[in-house]
Specification:
Blueprint (H helix, E strand, L loop, with lengths): L4 H18 L1 H8 L5 H12 L6 E4 L10 E11 L4 H4 L3 E5 L2 E20 L2 H17 L1 H4 L3 E3 L2 E4 L2 E7 L3 E2 L2 H4 L6 E16 L12 E4 L3
Parallel strand pairs: 1-2
Antiparallel strand pairs: 2-4, 3-4, 3-10, 4-9, 5-6, 7-9, 8-9
Length: 214
C-alpha cells in the first residue's frame, strides 16, 4: 500500500471546516481569542453564510480564484528509517487463508497547505483555522489512510509549521485579482508497503496488514 497522504489531509480539513461552520459561534472565541470583537463578528458572519465556501483540494484549482481555497500539495518526501538486513519491516499480509511477507519502508513527508485568498485578514484567519483543523484531526489522521476498510498506514510524528504572509506570483494564476498566500505545513512519517515480486498473491477483494516481530 503506497499512502496517498494528500487526500487524507484534504478530507480531514474539509471535515474540520464543516464542524467549525456548524459550531461557529462557540468556536470563534476559542480559536481567535486575540481578534477584536469586530473581527470575530466578521468571521462568524462569513462562515454563517452558506454561499461562502472555502475550496479544499489536492493541488491548485485550474481556474481564476473566485473564493478562498486551501490547496494541499507534497512539499518534499524522502525515505526515512531503513530496516536491518533486507530492510523488511516484519509485516505479513493476510489474504483470506493465505499470508505473504511484504517489504516496507518509512517515508518522511512534508505536506503544504496553501491558504490562498484576496483579502489579507481572511488569509490570516484561514491559516489559523487550517492549523486548528490539523490539530483537531491529529488523532484521526493517524488512522485515516485505509483500503477496503482496513487501516494500512498511519501518520506518525506529526509536526506543524507555518510560512509567512506573501503575495502569490501572477505566474501561478494569470488573473487580474491579486491573491495572497499563507502556508501551513504538516510533516509526518508513514509506512509504505508492497508485496515482493517473487510472491504470488491470489486475487482478493479485501486485505489487511498485521505487524509481527521481525
Amino acid at each position: 500500500m503506497i499512502v496517498d497522504g494528500e487526500k487524507a489531509i484534504v478530507a480531514s480539513i474539509q471535515d474540520a471546516f464543516s464542524y467549525f461552520r456548524a459550531n461557529v459561534t462557540t468556536l470563534v472565541p476559542m480559536i481567535f481569542p486575540n481578534e477584536s470583537s469586530t473581527n470575530q463578528t466578521a468571521i462568524e458572519n462569513w462562515w454563517s453564510t452558506a454561499s461562502n465556501q472555502v475550496f479544499v483540494q489536492v493541488g491548485y484549482l485550474l481556474q481564476p480564484v473566485s473564493a478562498p481555497q486551501v490547496a494541499v500539495t507534497i512539499e518534499s518526501e524522502r525515505e526515512g528509517e531503513q530496516f536491518a538486513g533486507s530492510e523488511r519491516a516484519g509485516l505479513v499480509v493476510s489474504i483470506g487463508s493465505d499470508v505473504a511477507d511484504v517489504d516496507a519502508i518509512y517515508m518522511e513527508t512534508t505536506y503544504a497547505c496553501h491558504c490562498v485568498g484576496v483579502n489579507q485578514d481572511f488569509v490570516l484567519w484561514l491559516q489559523m483555522l487550517t492549523k486548528w483543523a490539523l490539530l483537531l484531526k491529529r488523532k484521526s489522521l493517524m488512522q485515516q489512510v485505509q483500503a477496503d476498510g482496513q487501516i494500512t498506514g498511519v501518520f506518525q510524528r506529526q509536526r506543524i509549521a507555518a510560512a509567512p504572509f506573501r503575495p502569490v506570483p501572477d505566474g501561478v494564476f494569470h488573473e487580474g485579482i491579486f491573491p495572497f498566500e499563507r502556508v501551513v505545513t504538516l510533516s509526518a512519517t508513514h509506512l509504505d508497503t508492497w508485496a515482493s515480486e517473487d510472491v504470488a498473491l491470489p486475487l482478493s477483494s479485501s486485505s489487511s496488514v498485521a505487524v509481527t516481530d521481525s
